[in-house]
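Minimal example, chain plus zinc ion.
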Amino acid sequence: MMQLALWSGWSATKSWTFVFDLPYSASLHTDYREGYKATRSLCYVKRTLWFCMLLSFYEFNGTGSVKGTLKIPAHFTFIFLMWQKDDARTSLLILMDTPSYIPPPSRYWADLGTADFAALQASGCASKTIAILPVAATEQHGPHLPVSVDTVLVNGVLTAALACLPQYVPALVLPTQSIGLSVEHARFAGTLTLKNETILRLWTDICECIATVGIRKLVLFNAHGGNVSAMDMVARDLRARLNMRVYSVSWFNLPLTDTDGSDVTKWFGQTEMRFGIHAGDVETSMMLALDPVHVHMDQAQNFASTAQAYSLKFDILGNGKSAKLGWQIQDYNPTGAVGNAAAATADKGRITIAAAGRALAQLLTELDLLPSATL
Ligand SMILES: [Zn+2]
């Protein structure tokens, strides 16, 4: 006959103590100790540190009992499993060295209420929580795409990431900032841009509110190249003044690999990945996957870049590293698009979104393992 007992829980605020009182014989005691030593092990499972301890209790016609205590320290999640079959009892203890965490009812900041934030603070988990501020743009994207592209993409990749993010990773997504720094597209009607000082103030103000909740880990998650320099400045300022650990992450700089580990950028080619920086094959494919109604493929062309022409003509100026142009999009192509949009397909877009989502989820899982106490 098999008997099974299972306890699990978390130990954010106190230690847990199990008291054993199990039948045993004199010889059993030795087996118990040897078994304990032999099977005690540390192992990594999916980059999460687990402490596994296997305790075996064998019963040989014995009388008496094993008495002992097992103390689980604070800040561990644990699962304790004990089973008995015939005359043997075995127990398995798994301690998970991640912050104990009771997930709020939603991953989205705006869905939560006063009681949810109060619970987050009371649990002591606020400092472990990773806030994600999605930053994007509303700017022209050539003749074939709407001005919403960067906002659609940042939300699309985030949705893909949340779908594969382990539940124990404490992440909260802030409202998407759909207007960014788009001065390089200002010559084209429809572009909405903030000024440098406005965007620094806006993002800083939002992040200061996050800090008052007790949150110390923040990801600025971006879909627009023009935002990158502003992200760097905001991140360093928040680190210096508020002791926040801030990572600036653009989806297009994440490692984009398929589930088998192969590089998905191969579907676009090296030339497109280097020069097709705006409304080209990559962004158009992702839009075909996320919002095809607003994509006009009859207007999509192979929009050549002047940067590609320079790369063939000049060794240093054209190497893409030594001299960075303070560009406006018309410097690269008068249509406001750069890249081979005509080659776009929804399948390539879906593959790219899934790869970026997986990479972001992995990144968040890794950030969860960082101690906030080092700041
Ligand atoms: Zn874009």
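Residues 141, 149-150, 224, 278, 283 surround zinc ion (CB under 6 Å). The longest strand covers residues 48-58.
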